[in-house]
Write a structure and sequence with these properties.
Blueprint: E1 10-18, H1 30-39, E2 43-51, H2 63-76, E3 80-83, H3 89-98, E4 103-106, H4 116-123, H5 137-140, E5 148-149, E6 161-164, E7 173-174, E8 190-191, H6 211-225, E9 233-238, H7 240-244, H8 246-255, E10 261-266, H9 269-274, H10 276-288, E11 291-296, E12 299-301, H11 305-311, H12 317-333, E13 338-339, E14 346-347, H13 356-367
Parallel strand pairs: 1-2, 1-3, 2-5, 3-4, 6-9, 9-10, 10-11, 11-13, 12-14
Antiparallel strand pairs: 7-8
Helix pairs in contact: 2-3, 6-8, 8-10
């Protein structure tokens, strides 16, 4: 929008929130779209409908939920309607009919917030202008987490919130050291886990000017804008740099007066082992300030050295046992403030090359 003297445009963000948190990564950018709207002089609203998870990822709203949504659309008269999930064509047509001339946008940007300006320019051309050209746009945006929940889905009241602080994982290991891959003439000299669909190492490590400050800004905004009346807020922190600076992060949150939150980190087992000292030093401070730490996403993958080499995981059986002992002992001492992973540890027990010997190795280690 080139002039702020004209009547401000309105953007409506529709959040179809499944009852399985892992399937709602499409709204990671919503707080930043809300903040961007304020920067460019637009009005914006974030409207939530709790929905049951659809395995085919096509969400058909119930007649009641559709009516609720259409009432809100007609009332707000947005110029742009952003959706995080797929809807049937008929229901999209109903939305279009409720607000003629509005642009309907299927939002697809997830964790890669560094591409926010490019995505907005392509998908929401009405928002083009000098603000989007600022290389420090993400630092300028003050995220806005206020929402309006349109139906009574209980899981919509206090959902898991993604906090972005950079690239999810930093693991890459030389291909030359792995006999299963060094003869394949791969384009890169290093690779991550073979089962992980990550971008190439030259482009995946996006950085923000001050990743820790960026994460703290988000967490503080969540605590200010979403009072939970005694309910704990769960925050999933994404960014390997945040874990490396865990002590600094905790101190910064305490200084901001953050309380009543669970900090979830998705780590590799070797990252957990490397952070044991920081965890021990921070536990008293976490307890004093009503903050909990939960480690999630820990993957053994496979105890067989040969299978794990195929997976290019870079984790040994002894590291798994060492990390497991640390988690159980620490949880026993501080159950309220050091929490175990949901569902335990992850495994990839079979590959096309699995032998009976590999299964025996796995069963022996699982028993241990």
């Amino acid at each position: 929008m080139s002039s702020k003297t004209a009547a401000p445009s309105c953007m409506m963000l529709i959040d179809l929130l499944p009852d399985a948190a892992v399937h709602n990564l499409g709204t990671i950018a919503y707080p930043f779209l809300m903040g961007l709207s304020r920067l460019i002089g637009w009005r914006a609203c974030w409207c939530v409908l709790g929905v049951r998870y659809a395995p085919d990822l096509l969400y058909t709203l119930t007649p009641r939920d559709l009516r609720l949504l259409l009432v809100e659309v007609r009332r707000r008269k947005p110029r742009v309607v952003v959706l995080n999930q797929h809807l049937p064509k008929k229901q999209l047509s109903d939305i279009s009919a409720a607000v003629p001339g509005a642009r309907l946008v299927r939002w697809t940007l997830g964790e890669d917030l560094q591409y926010l300006a490019d995505h907005v320019r392509r998908r929401i051309p009405e928002a083009r202008g000098p603000v989007l050209e600022d290389p420090r746009l993400l630092d300028r945006i003050q995220p806005i987490y206020r929402r309006k929940i349109l139906n009574r889905a209980p899981w919509a009241l206090n959902p898991l919130i993604e906090v972005m602080g950079g690239s999810r994982c930093s693991y890459y290991a030389p291909v030359a050291g792995n006999p299963f891959y060094r003869r394949l003439q791969l384009p890169e000299a290093v690779m991550g886990c073979s089962f992980c669909s990550r971008p190439d190492p030259k482009s995946s490590h996006w950085t923000i000017q001050g990743s820790l400050d960026f994460a703290v800004k988000q967490i503080a905004a969540v605590c200010r804008q979403r009072p939970a009346k005694g309910a704990e807020k769960r925050l999933n922190l994404v960014g390997f740099e945040l874990w490396k600076r865990f002590e600094e992060l905790v101190l910064a949150l305490v200084q901001r007066g953050v309380r009543g939150v669970e900090l979830d980190f998705m780590l590799r087992l070797d990252e957990l082992l490397g952070g044991r000292g920081a965890i021990e030093r921070c536990l008293p401070l976490l307890a004093q300030n009503g903050i909990a730490l939960r480690i999630n996403g820990l993957g053994v993958e496979n105890f067989s050295p040969e299978e794990n080499m195929r997976l290019h995981k870079g984790i040994t059986a002894e590291q798994v046992h060492e990390a497991t002992s640390f988690m159980l002992e620490t949880h026993a001492r501080r159950p309220e403030h050091f929490r175990l992973p949901f569902g335990g540890l992850g495994m990839i027990l079979f590959t096309p090359w699995t032998r009976l010997e590999d299964l025996r190795i796995n069963l022996d280690n699982i028993e241990r």
